[in-house]
Amino acid sequence: MIRFLDELVAVNMEGKQIHHGVTCTIQNDVAVQGTNDSSIVSKCSVASLGYFKDTYLHHFVSKTTRRAPLINRGYYIRARAIDDVLKAFLKIFGDSTNQIISLGAGFDSTYFRLQANGSLDNTVFYEVDFPQLVKRKAALIRKKIELTELLLNPIYHSLLDSSGVCISSEKYHLLGVDLKHLDTLERVFKDIGVDSVLPTLLLSECVITYIDTHSSDALIKWAGGYFTHGQFVSYEQVLPDDPFGIVMQKHFKKLNSPLNAIQKYTNKQKHCARFIQQGWDTSCAINMYEYYTQIISKGERIRVEQIELFDEFEEWHLKCIHYILVAAFNGRCGEYRRNLFPELPLAPSVAEHSFVSDINPTVLVKPHPLQSTLEATTLLRLFSHASVLIPDTSNIMISGGFGDSAGCHRRLDKVHMINHHLGNVIELHATQGSEKLGPRLHHTMTALNSGQFLIFGGRTSPSKPCTIPYILTLQNTHHLPSYQLQTVQGGEVSPSPRWRHTATPLTLAGREFVLVYGGRGVEGHPLGDTWLLDVEKISWQRIHFEGGFIDARHSHSATPWGNSYVVVTGGIGCDTTPLHSIVILNVETKSHTIQETIPSLKPRYSHTAHIVEDQLYLLGGVQPITDTPPSLTIIHLITWTLLEIRLEVSSPECPLMLHNHTSHWLPEREGVLVIGGGGNCFSFGTHLNQTPVVIEGILQYKSTR
Q1: Which of 2, 74, 366, 391 is most buried as measured by Cβ atoms within 10 A of its Cβ?
Q2: H or E element: which one contains 337?
Q3: Residue of 103, 54, 102, 100 lying closest to 76 (CA atoms)
């Protein structure tokens, strides 16, 4: 039986009250209806690929279009969560007469799917949406025998008599009513036979957030008063103020369908309080990261993750924490709240990992002053690249990634250099006769003592890893820097192709080595093997560490500490869950230890790391267990105490996404230079950080708790 624990965000009648406000945003109803058309195509893509079974969705699209894997996963978790709510409601109330009302149903096919499999024997199903939209839906239904045969004694109305009814039948009713017009909605409900006393599930799937907040509050209040035994479930967006949330809001504003509720109801707690404020008995909420990782079974997750090649973990997790399922209950439905919603297994709460925010220091993040052309600045709008500080210079070399190129977003094959003192950027070209580097993402570039650079791993797509390591040598051609590539011949044994790994320079017994650890390969699983490259001999040796198993991982950091130690932090493990562990590798003795911090480190990945004066600095990354994006974490490597530093961006209108970036420690500024960062933000577009930024003066902060 599916249950919902109080450990989820839950609010009762004594819950915290929230301030009333009136939002006067003018909605463009046509634009809001357009979100239905986009949504139904995405849902159809999910169904056609086997993420979710629905054989009726294709009747509501003119052509099935395959969406990107990231969008498919996002719509899968949405469909799965809503379907679980429906099944749980019907499991409790399905043996007696009940009602399901879909508010803003659009071209949803839920009724036909559930009616076909016999789930609605005692259920009357109502769909409500704009009159213009339901006319279109009714026309599609009438054209399809597969749909009309699932309607019992249907009557088709023209809507010209202002009754609000477009289709009526024994078990299905399609109603054309603007949800802001509550008097009309109540009249139509009474005329069509909606029973205010029956157990009733009201669904709002990305709907009420498009209504002005005053009207959506009124709808919630009206529903709580009208239905004696009701359950109201809404799926919508939260967290407007972090970088992903800013990009998300800009997307919907551009479509002329802004997210109205998100500004007032910014998180799960406020959404729960909202329903209590509007008269519901109890309320609770869960975000989609929690739902996917803790509610959906491991077997189902494995099935889903094997459908398509996938490598956009950052944006998948960020999308999931920005969408919630919030539910409110009245009457008999409240008695079964624990049965109607899933139960979260016990897991470390965010509070256990957090600090009191008002005692944390804040550091200002400033744009780096680029003294270059717009074209040169565009070169640095990228992510998933590699960069390395050239020893004894002010130059940083950058290769590959995904970003701007000739006005388009694409995989990059460029090598370029930035002088962080002067701020100028130049592009490097391959010397005549040398192979070009070619496009690659998630690779590493390591500076060698010879002044050369090891380029290892990376991929073009998740099915096409880069298989050839290179030694890159800088040249001067006609007084302009250029590069030459030499293939690394690794001998009889060498690491398998991989990306999202680390390559750490080391000096052992006076000799130069590079330690390659972890990553992803074409099989899709994190790798746990460790390899040591003897730079002088150009030969590989696989290293086995004593002291037990080291978790396979990718998207972690690995930072040299002294001559023989490497500090490995975070990453994504075998079950695609972010890790919080810190592993200390002693490459000389082939041993390792696992270290805990005080307080505990939050699970984290896709960050960068530096060690300065026995302090480990972790910058950015993704931490999906918390609503707060990671900033700067300082860990003292002797006491293992931990301090969080908040980062404040000097230009909030230009979001700074601190993942898939690179960073470099600048001793003279006691801080770091951040280059690139961003990602493909679900269906909201690709975000590229506008310019390199500098975080300076952080050495003054010591983790001495």
Answers
A1: 74
A2: helix 337-340
A3: 54
Summarised one tens digit per residue, pLDDT across range 68-116 is 999 999 999 999 999 999 999 999 999 999 999 999 999 999 999 999 9
- Outline where DSSP puts E strands in 288-431: 323-329, 362-367, 382-383, 386-389, 395-399, 402-405, 408-411, 415-419, 425-430
- Nearest to 630, CA basis, from 349, 323, 314, 269: 314
Distances (CA, A) of 447 to 279, 386, 451, 452, 503: 63, 12, 7, 6, 10
Give the Cα separation of 409 and 387 in Å (integer). Answer: 19
Determine the angle formed by the axes of helices 182-192 and 213-226, rounding to 10 degrees: 30
Q: Which residues contact 387 (CB under 8 A, 6 or more apart)?
A: 396, 397, 398, 399, 445, 662, 664, 675, 676
Residues 123-168: tens digit of each pLDDT: 999 999 999 999 999 999 999 999 999 999 999 998 756 689 999 9
Average pLDDT, the chain: 89
Q: Start-end ranges of CATH 3.40.50.150 in the chain?
A: 9-104+198-217+224-342
Peptide bond into 599 cis (omega under 30): yes
Element (H, E) at 115: helix 110-116
Q: What is the pLDDT of residues 591-624, one digit of tens each?
A: 999 999 999 999 999 999 999 999 999 999 999 9
CA distances from 241 to 131, 354, 398, 655, 656 (A): 34, 19, 30, 9, 12
Q: Which CATH superfamily is domain 9-104+198-217+224-342 in?
A: Vaccinia Virus protein VP39 (3.40.50.150)
Please name the residues in contact with 301: beta carbons below 8 A apart, sequence gap of 6 or more. Answer: 292, 293, 575, 576
Residue 224 near residue 231, CB atoms below 8 Å: no
Q: Is the dihedral of CA 176, 182, 184, 186 positive or negative?
A: positive
Among candidate residues 627, 16, 629, the one with its CA nearest the CA of residue 351: 627
The angle subtended at Cα 549 by Cα 545 and Cα 552, nearest 5°, is 100
Q: What is the arithmetic mean of pLDDT over 256-278?
A: 96
Two tokens, residue 245: 């949330």
Residues 187 and 458: their CA atoms lie apart, in Å, by 62
Residue 301's Cα: distance from chain center in Å? 16
- Measure the CA–CA gap between 402 and 382, rounded to whole angstroms: 5
pTM: 0.92
For residue 424, give both structure tokens. Answer: 């100028």
Which one-letter amino acid corresponds to residue 25?
T
Phi, psi dihedrals of residue 158, rounded to the nearest 5°: -90, -10
> Locate tokens 């009420």: which residue?
208
Q: How many helices (H) and strands (E) does the chain have?
A: 16, 41
The helix or strand, by DSSP H or E, that contains position 222, with its residue range, turns out to be helix 213-226
- Which one, of 316, 385, 383, lies nearest residue 69 by Cα? 316
